[in-house]
Amino acid sequence: MRVRMAIRLATQNEAMSDLERINAIYWALSTTLIHRVPGAVVELGCNAGYTSVWLARIVQDFAPERELHLFDSFQGLPDLGTHDAYLRKGDCQASLDDVKANFATWDLPLPIVHPGWFEQTLPDGCPPQVCFAYLDGDFHQSIKTSLEHVYPRLAPGGVILVDDYCDLDANPRAWDGLPGVKRACDDYFGPGAPQLEVLGGVGDLSMALIRKPIDER
Fold it and tell me: Is Mitochondrion among this UniProt entry's keywords (predicted)?
């Protein structure tokens, strides 16, 4: 793992990420690529692209032939739903130029970027097969829409990481600021879904790993 890059990205983006999240992404994505699970890599909610360059670095190191797709409204967050909290409409806004600048800083090839709301871009823009997805949509409807389009395309053995997923029964240290994220996963899979695993750490890591069973098509 490129530890110096990980530390630098965690420092630059400390309001939205930390080293534990970056480590989780590394192990989940690199293992998926090492085991040659077929499909593209996607990120839903890329913001300014700090996590995106980390995904791109891992792809370049392990499987440079794989496509990386980024999805973001570049208008900030949408309206809150009844299950959402903490953030507000328009928060977390970044631009496509921010993404391009980050990729230029790290001398990485620009991925395929899909600007617009998920419900507009995912139906045609989501690759037909996905090996790994990072979902960082913050709100209930954004995560639900993401799962509806990504999970059916996820290859058997593929992985989805859902940021801000908080289950305090499983991980009492987790940050619980965005309750709509877990509710969206429960709505899609049902509570206690066997393919969903809560991750933990020494800090307030709030994240779930969803692995598609090998025998599920």
Answer: no
pLDDT tens, the chain, 217 aa long: 999 999 999 999 988 889 999 999 999 999 999 999 999 999 999 999 999 999 999 999 999 999 999 999 999 999 999 999 999 999 999 999 999 999 999 999 999 999 999 999 999 999 999 999 999 999 999 999 999 999 999 999 999 999 999 999 999 999 999 999 999 999 999 988 888 999 999 999 999 999 999 888 7
Using CA atoms, how far residue 189 sits from 5, 34, 126, 166, in Å, is: 35, 27, 20, 15
Residue 216 included in any domain: no
- Sheet of 154-163: strand order equals 112-115, 68-72, 40-44, 130-135, 154-163, 207-211, 196-198
Q: Are 21 and 43 in contact (CB under 8 A)?
A: no
What residues make up the domain containing 106?
3-211
The CA angle 216-70-126, to the nearest 5 degrees, is 40
Helices (H), the chain: 3-12, 19-34, 50-62, 96-105, 118-125, 140-150, 179-189
* Buried-exposed string 53-83: b where 16+ CB fall within 10 A, e elsewhere: bbbbbbbeeebeebebbbbbbbeebbebeeb
